[in-house]
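Q: I have two molecules that I believe assemble together. Could you output structure tokens for the complex as a whole instead of separate predictions?
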Amino acid sequence: MEPDLVVRQAVTVLSTVAVLVIVSVGLAVIFGVMRIINLAHGEFLMLGAYSVLVISRAGAPLWAGLMVAPVAVGLIGLAVERLVIRFLYGRLIATMLATWGLSLVLVQLVVMIFGPATQGVPTPLGSLRVGGYRISEYSLALIGFAIGLLVATYSLFTRTRYGLLARAASQNPLMAQALGVNTGRTNAATFALGAALAGLAGAMLAPVVGVVPSMGQAFIARAFMTVIVGGPAVLTGMGSAAALLGGAESLVSQASTAFLGQAALLLLAVILLRIMPQGLSGSWGRRL
Amino acid sequence: MTRLPRSAPVPLAATGLALASLAFLVEDVWLVKFSSWLIFGTLALSLAFIWGRGGIFSFGQNAFFGIGAYLYGIAAINLVHSTGETVTAFLIGGLGGALMALILGYFMFYGRLGDVYVAIITLAVTLVLFTVMAGTAGPQYRVGEARLGGYNGMTGIPPIVVGIPFQGDGIRLTPQTMYLFVVVMAVTLFAAVSRLSQQPFGRVVIAVRENELRTELLGYDIRRYKLLAFTFGGAIAGLAGSAFAAWGLFVNPAVFGLRQAALVVIWLLVGGQASLIGPFLGAALVEWISSTLAGGVGGDETPIILGITLVLVVLLLPHGLAGLLRLMWERLTRSTRRAPRVPEGKPGETSPASQKIPSAILTQLLQNARTDAATLEVRGLAKSFGGVQALDDVTLSFPARGIRCLIGPNGAGKSTFFNLLIGRFPPSRGRIYLEGRDITRLHPHRRAQQGIGIKLQVPSLYPGLSVRENVWLASFAVSRNVPDANRRTEEMLGGTGLAHRADELAANLSHGEQQWLEITMVLAAAPRVILLDEPSAGMTREETLRTADIVRGLGEVASVIVVEHDMEFVRHLGAPITMFHQGRIFVEGTLEELRRDQRVLDVYLGRERARRVAVE
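A: Yes, here they are, computed for all two components at once.
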């Protein structure tokens, strides 16, 4: 194979992996750290994308959208946690159903406000010439975003006081309370953080995917699969799972169609879980 | 369980007849509506079975429903001209739903995925099916004469045509006769589900929901039970899907959509899961309200109403509308009826172990059930977790009859040893032999069938089932024969003094009684090797001594291995002792020998380290 083709292929595979990481980080925080199945994750992502849409319609540059989206969606997440989720801790199926109801409402509200049609946000940056191919600079930026997100989230949970409290509050709430941790506030903060990460993900993806009210659905199944296959080490495991699943998806979709790529991802995930029920990181003995 | 009220066939038949008679009293417009409610109710019934009974939450019922609908469409369009009927197609839809559930369930349950993962995988599969079917718009996507039609769906599906295959054209159902067909389907499936719940299979499925670990340790293959239950649920949903396609003469990918998936759960939550009528009531109520208020599914506000309903039901009505009504009914009737569920008195006083139970009866019971004792042998058994060597090179043999006590400080490896014996996880090295047969790689349920029974440290029971049902499940695990299991249950209840509390929920027993119930269950399963992990924990002194008497009796017919911290209990057993320390066998001998051993005292008092430092 020509070297320029190899580079292009590698960038395609890596950017698929990057997208998977970006959409899964927020879920890894909410599901992995808090053990809450947030079925509205896709809709948080969608709201992030619409934030960028609104901002760019107002004439502001993309980076402004990248700043506003996580804050806006994080606040929505905070409200959701205070109004609904906090009454349901420890009731797994109940949180799942409630966030599901929420996702139906959010999609329909956005349809009523912005209409059901797909809308675009212009892709920033230009493209690079590698041999006979052009590579979009934004897809390289996405790879950078993914790495940055993973590192930043990992550091947040391992290096900060909040990170320690958040892990304590979710692993053993009673003990954490006995030690004086305000678990209610910590949980609210973690849920808001997960929502903000989803919003940021939506903002990052807005320029490369169509912004449409139902876009959350397109990502939620893949994000959940990535987090589950990742296993107990929620961030590093998720990153590895994204590499594996994203790699498979990208290779299969290049060889056939995008749809078969997604089917390959699902199939590989189910097979991996059959072989390693604890997920990829099941035997790593780590929790992040 | 043996005295559970049977599902009454007379009221069911009467309800069926009443529903059927509507066909001659009501206009066709209403019959068409009623048909759809019954179809949706049947779909919700499938979820009520696998979630309510089996404890498996699945988003996949829609997937099986949709597959049933599409398969009916494909089969009916292609077959109706040659066979002259579509009942075959109707059944193919059900078969398709079952097959899909079987394949999906195999990966999920044999991979031992947790509940959360099952929910998410079924959701993912449903969403992927939505994408697949929406992407089949082109004319190349056809099966025989049936065009899949992509997002717009498959049209021209024939109605149900009843007839004998290849014997000319059958009877095409009108709205009126289609309604009757749906009534027959719903009543039949309802009867099948409620009958199954009475059968041993249904009882074990409920047991799996209540306590997977205990069910497995009694010798049931929980993977298989879950898979079969899931497949049965898939078949019901598939048949409902067939009926749906035949009812609407049309099917589109929306059956795989999130909105439809949400609806099924809402029907069930509103109707409540406690009874099997709930799903039908919920479906009819929700559909009736949404068709009168919001102009039917498809209105703009419908998803918002659905979503808010879902959130509110979860927040405010955890047991559904039916649960709320039952609660109100109970409040109303409480003032007139007085029925204390939890008996008065201190827990210790009612504990059966404190009553005079001749251990000879128990020994006799055990002997009746199984005459062949078995030796247990482990060679070089080792287990490490990450870097921790929990058990290291343990070689021990246990005679076919007799007692052995295992002692040692916390973390000595006793629990790991038990867990390796019952197969909760595989050893890192070493072999386990039961009566000379290598069982090192057998699944826990296979070992239980071979005769290894365990009472866990924390009582592991079925809290939501009655004492009798608890013991029945243990008895049935061995005999797999209902009359035998019934007889043995009553024998065990009588023999262990639990008979007077047989209809009490296990959750309502005192801690000592729960311990005792678990021991009874272990014995009901007639094990050849009995593992007891701290049997006297939580018992009074008198109960402890009586339990020791009974364990001594058991030692005459089986191999009993006891982990215990209570030295009074150990002394009372008078059995040889093996002491574990840091994952290894530290010393063996009688209690007296161990008491004289300075090293043993050092370990228990933590002096070892101090002394080593002093020597250096």
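A: One point stands out. Chain A touches chain B through 44 residues (CB under 8 Å).
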